[in-house]
């Protein structure tokens, strides 16, 4: 890190200037903002109804007709509208799954780290056990047996990916609980739950925020994969994953149907990954991949 | 050393018990239970379901079923498939070689490529190559593997017609090594993409950590040439986190193999898993969960032992 002679800055000013130097993170943040906006305003932006069938208009190529800017699929549905509405679905699942992951992981991590002893051992052995299963296996087994709704898919993804978060939070709490401000809170008569959630948790916010950002990326990836296999978001509701399933059958003649949803998934995952990486560098230089 | 191995083995026991409890619990807590395929089928009569329950021992209390199943796992009786009534362990074992071949070839590619890129990046830190490599790795980690596989099929099998789009052999060419290699290229490429990225990131930071330590300066001061410094001094010290990575990565490798196998119709365990999923073959699914988890536990155990072998500090602490 360069030791540029900078004027004294506030904490948030320092974080912002570190983040701004990370050009890929800025680009990631921009892409994420754009995607969130397009998902939010999908009903206004989409030129057509994403479920409107018209077999007379099948397989329109992209950029040929401004009624269907990105062409139409095998049932004559507008691809752009389906991408926009599918993004709404994929991002919703990604965000709800991330919230589930972070809440479960933080709760288990903080309990294990703060209480310690037998509870810690038991919880951490549980984490070790869960980590023995390949996540895709765990995810698919549960997804195949639970009727797929947006909520159930999000919960399943969230509940099979919280383990790393709990380890990160626990390590942070072990570090923090020896510090003076915790002793001070205790001396002032703060209850255990107050110390856990009002004193320790806010101080562990930085690594949690980084993990949360990266978890959105992996949740979007997981959703698209299980939807692609048919255990996720069910048609006629569009998701980027199930758009790929349909497109696969017309691969050799109309490849753009498979290319477009894939590009959307890749952009989203990259956006969140770059953003998370930049946040890690900005919030906590100790955690950098680059020592 | 023997004491260290014994301690590690003992630590694996609660993990095995935990893994079997979760695997068993998942199947029985699932809506519809393990017989969902029958109970949800309107053409099957209630008395038939009762009969099937008795045959598979599903009428007994849960804890008895668990003990029976778990002791079976450790004595080689993994139950029988619903369709065809074949022993589950046999069904799984016959798929293992294909998956190990795919995982092995992808891992070799990833280690050779990832390690070279990572080490080069660490040696020439902040060079154009290093920046490109670290950015490229982050890009690779963000690719949806299954989509990358579909695109690879589109480009190399459909457009260019260089490589077959799936399967393990050409029809009638079973056992032909050349045919096998041609079929192996695309799935290996897809599986290796993400692992290579991980390896380059980890080896870069492992070498950077080592390269600025005192013993490296000493080696340089006494005139050890750069190549030997890297190989004899830096490598053994940087190897530890990389061996650990080998163990930690195993579940991801299985997940990745499942994805690659479903895309390319590779007849391995991942393919078996997805097929069993669509037929709700719960004895196979439960067996697969157990098999991969035991494999992961053993892999981590071996990684720990390897680390203790090269670093006496670990085994003595």
TrEMBL record, chain A:
Residues 87-276 form the ABC transmembrane type-1 domain. PROSITE patterns: ABC_TM1 (PS50928). One of its GO terms (cellular component) is plasma membrane. The chain crosses the membrane at residues 24-46, 91-119, 254-276. Keywords: Cell membrane, Membrane, Peptide transport, Protein transport, Transmembrane, Transmembrane helix, Transport. The keyword rRNA processing does not apply. InterPro entries: BP-dependent_transpt_permease, MetI-like, MetI-like_sf, OppC_N. One of its GO terms (biological process) is transmembrane transport. It comes from the Bacteria. It is a multi-pass membrane protein. It is found in: Cell membrane. Belongs to the binding-protein-dependent transport system permease family. This is ABC transporter permease. It comes from Neoroseomonas lacus.
UniProtKB/TrEMBL annotation, chain B:
The chain crosses the membrane at residues 12-30, 100-123, 135-160, 180-199, 242-264, 284-310. The keyword Cell membrane applies. GO terms for cellular component: plasma membrane. Residues 96-303 form the ABC transmembrane type-1 domain. It is a multi-pass membrane protein. InterPro entries: BPD_transp_1_N (IPR045621), MetI-like (IPR000515), MetI-like_sf (IPR035906). It is found in: Cell membrane. One of its GO terms (biological process) is transmembrane transport. Coiled coil: none annotated. Its main location: membrane. Keywords: Cell membrane, Membrane, Transmembrane, Transmembrane helix, Transport. Belongs to the binding-protein-dependent transport system permease family. This is Peptide ABC transporter permease. It comes from Neoroseomonas lacus.
């Amino acid at each position: 890190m360069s030791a540029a002679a900078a004027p004294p800055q506030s904490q948030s000013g320092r974080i912002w200037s570190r983040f701004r130097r990370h050009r890929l993170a800025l680009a990631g943040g921009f892409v994420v903002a754009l995607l969130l906006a397009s998902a939010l305003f999908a009903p206004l932006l989409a030129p057509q109804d994403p479920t409107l069938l018209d077999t007379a208009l099948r397989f329109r190529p992209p950029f040929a007709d401004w009624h269907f800017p990105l062409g139409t699929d095998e049932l004559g549905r507008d691809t752009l509208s389906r991408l926009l509405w599918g993004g709404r679905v994929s991002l919703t699942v990604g965000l709800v799954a991330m919230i589930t992951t972070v809440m479960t992981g933080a709760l288990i991590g903080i309990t294990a780290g703060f209480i310690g002893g037998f509870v810690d051992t038991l919880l951490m052995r549980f984490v070790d056990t869960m980590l023995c299963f390949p996540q895709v296996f765990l995810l698919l087994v549960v997804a195949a047996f639970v009727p797929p709704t947006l909520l159930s898919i999000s919960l399943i993804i969230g509940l099979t990916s919280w383990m790393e978060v709990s380890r990160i939070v626990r390590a942070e709490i072990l570090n923090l609980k020896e510090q003076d401000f915790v002793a001070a809170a205790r001396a002032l008569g703060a209850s255990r739950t107050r110390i856990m959630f009002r004193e320790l948790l806010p101080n562990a916010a930085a690594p949690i925020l980084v993990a949360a950002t990266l978890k959105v990326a992996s949740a979007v990836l997981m959703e698209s994969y299980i939807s692609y296999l048919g255990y996720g978001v069910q048609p006629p509701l569009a998701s980027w994953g199930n758009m790929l399933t349909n497109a696969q059958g017309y691969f050799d003649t109309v490849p753009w149907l498979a290319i477009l949803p894939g590009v959307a998934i890749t952009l989203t995952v990259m956006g969140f990954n770059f953003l998370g990486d930049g946040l890690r560098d900005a919030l906590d230089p100790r955690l950098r991949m680059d020592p | 050393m023997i004491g260290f191995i014994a301690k590690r083995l003992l630590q694996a026991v609660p993990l095995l018990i935990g893994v079997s409890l979760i695997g068993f619990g998942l199947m029985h807590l699932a809506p519809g239970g393990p017989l969902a395929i029958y109970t949800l089928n309107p053409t099957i009569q209630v008395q038939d379901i009762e009969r099937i329950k008795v045959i598979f021992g599903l009428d007994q209390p849960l804890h008895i079923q668990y003990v029976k199943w778990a002791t079976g796992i450790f004595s080689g009786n993994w139950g029988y498939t619903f369709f065809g009534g074949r022993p589950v362990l046999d069904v799984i074992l016959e798929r293992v070689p294909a998956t190990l071949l795919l995982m092995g070839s992808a891992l070799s590619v990833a280690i050779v490529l990832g390690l070279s890129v990572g080490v080069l990046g660490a040696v020439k830190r902040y060079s154009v190559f290093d920046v490109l490599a670290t950015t490229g790795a982050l890009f690779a980690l963000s690719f949806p593997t299954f989509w990358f596989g579909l695109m690879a099929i589109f480009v190399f099998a459909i457009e260019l017609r260089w490589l077959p789009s799936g399967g393990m052999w050409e029809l009638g060419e079973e056992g032909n090594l050349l045919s096998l290699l041609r079929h192996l290229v695309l799935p290996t490429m897809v599986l290796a993409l993400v692992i290579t990225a991980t390896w380059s990131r980890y080896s870069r930071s492992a070498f950077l950590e080592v390269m600025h330590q005192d013993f490296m300066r000493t080696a340089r001061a006494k005139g050890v040439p750069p190549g030997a410094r890297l190989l004899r001094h830096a490598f053994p010290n940087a190897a530890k986190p990389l061996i650990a990575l080998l163990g930690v990565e195993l579940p991801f490798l299985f997940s990745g193999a499942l994805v690659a196998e479903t895309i390319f119709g590779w007849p391995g365990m991942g393919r078996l898993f997805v097929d069993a999923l669509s037929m709700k073959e719960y004895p196979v699914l439960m067996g697969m969960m157990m098999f991969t988890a035991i494999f992961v536990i053993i892999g981590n155990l071996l990684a720990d032992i390897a680390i203790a072998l090269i670093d006496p500090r670990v085994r003595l602490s």
